[in-house]
Amino acid sequence: MPIWQKPISLELLNAGSKGTALESLGVEFTEIGDDFLRARVPVDKRTVQPYGLLHGGVSVVLAESLGSSGAHFSSPQGHRAVGLDINANHLRSARSGWVTGVTRPLHRGKTTQVWHIDLVNDEGELVCVSRITMAMLLPRG
């Protein structure tokens, strides 16, 4: 059974990236499952550090975008999700191609959510693992 409580589509997710860091970095949302989101980022001149490797900060941008989007769309209408904490363990470098992330919830509570994110290279090798904790804010009123 899908966890999404707000209307969600790839068109909506990608349109929300217009004019943001995600658009500048070339991030694309590619799949919505019943309990996961998938997005990818190219490893190119926009996203590498001076040594030609995917910048660790770009991995964190992808992870945070996935976890934040998951928390937002899986919460009731009017509720907002804001990041409290994110961590990332960089396990392998990427020099070309795409890095793809998948996020799934570990905990979806009334006041916090915790999401796990795995990032892999084109060969399916784990590049980074991340976890984000989100504060869930009640509707204003």
From TrEMBL:
Q: Which UniProt keywords apply?
A: Hydrolase
Which CDD domains did the record assign? PaaI_thioesterase (cd03443)
Tell me the superkingdom of the source: Bacteria
Keyword Acetylation listed? The answer is no
Tell me the ranges covered by the Thioesterase domain, including all copies: 51-128
Q: Name the Gene3D superfamilies for this protein.
A: Hotdog Thioesterase (3.10.129.10)
Protein family membership: Belongs to the thioesterase PaaI family.
Q: What is this protein called?
A: Hotdog fold thioesterase
